[in-house]
Amino acid sequence: MMPRCGPDSVDYQRSFAGLWPRLGALLPIPGAGNATEGSEVMDLGLRDKVAVVTAASSGLGRAVALGFAREGARVVMCSRRADAIEAAADEVRRTGAEVLALPADVTAPADIERVLDAAVERFGGIDVLVTNAGGPPAGTFDRFSDADWEAAFNLTLMSAVRLIRGALPSM
């Protein structure tokens, strides 16, 4: 039997099982059982830094955006769905952080350029770039078509290449 991959697979979940408690210690997440009222947050020297976080409407991206906000960073968030990124941005704004939320598909070079340009225009530059993106769909190796592989390659690798290349001049 071929191993399954993707966020719904047991192998994927097991590989991250040990990471979440460690990540939670750095990024207390309300509702995740790892934050208490008045929790102290580590000073990571991010006050007034500009952090761009992609795929920030849920999951790890949302948690990272919240963590940056709690550290005093100004946060630029993007995700494909406008309603989802606005809901996440509202939650991040409740920390007191300055937030710019934009709908964007990181597989589209024009969307990447638009997000990075907006970040620089609004905040004057970018200090931190988190190239978060979704993973491959759940399934076995032998069931992925060439189109599935190309889409995964574009989402996970090429989006990171384009984001880094676009952000570097302002960093």
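Second entry:
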Amino acid sequence: MKNNRKYLINIIEKYYFLIVFIASSSILISAYILELFFNHPPCNLCEYQRVPYFLLLLISLVSVKIKKKQLKIVALICFFSSFIISGFHSLVERKLIEFNIGCTSTGSDIDNIEDLRNFLEQKPLIKCDEISFSILGLSLANLNLVISALLIILSYYILTNHENKTSKNNR
């Protein structure tokens, strides 16, 4: 049993950036499929949640040439930022905190009906505090929060396991 765990840890560590690449691309592809094929446009916070995954794709591609521990630390930071953004979005969706970007207007530059029409066309159709899609009662922000937490745990474990191996090898 212990050998199986060591074997699995070695596989995960060896293919860490491939796992990161697959996870990030799967999340982004799923988001774009929902947006483009199922007419589920993202709100502002949904778009912000995609940024760390694009960075993780870039980091994964860079890792092909550069195999350094620092890239794993940057990946961990990206997962943590995804966790923070999706956690904030989850709180906004549940109306526990307020987020009004793009939802308010002073109306001072609207002089006629054409200005009003142009103003309304620029505003997002989806509000950040509305859950428009859920799976098993969890919004996409909630699911991203869970996925980010799991990837943080995995990344932290890989980093600390690598540290333990390095310190043992230096003795």
